[in-house]
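Customer ticket, subject: "Can you confirm the structure for AsnC family transcriptional regulator?"

Message body: Hello, I'm evaluating your service for our small team and ran a test protein. I'd like someone to confirm that this is what the system normally returns, since I don't have a reference to compare against.
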Amino acid sequence: MHCVFVQFRCTPGKTYEVARAIYDREIVSELFSTSGDWDLIAKVYIPADEDVGHYLSENLFGVPDIVRTLTTMTFKAF
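Agent reply: Thanks for trying us out. I re-ran your input and got the following:
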């Protein structure tokens, strides 16, 4: 499995609705609200046989009121 972190910027006033919709899809390991430039951050485990970009696009990025995302790939854990 590949672990990635995805940050979300939401339409103003829609963060809780976006969080609920993301959580309901049952593909994130953890989901947090954050301060700063991004509204939410999710930890997602991508199956090893899946393309990361396609997997996220097909399963996550179609949630209404997501304005922008930033995906951070991870590598070796220490």
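A couple of notes from the result: The radius of gyration is 12 Å. DSSP finds two helices and four strands in the chain. Feel free to reply with more questions.
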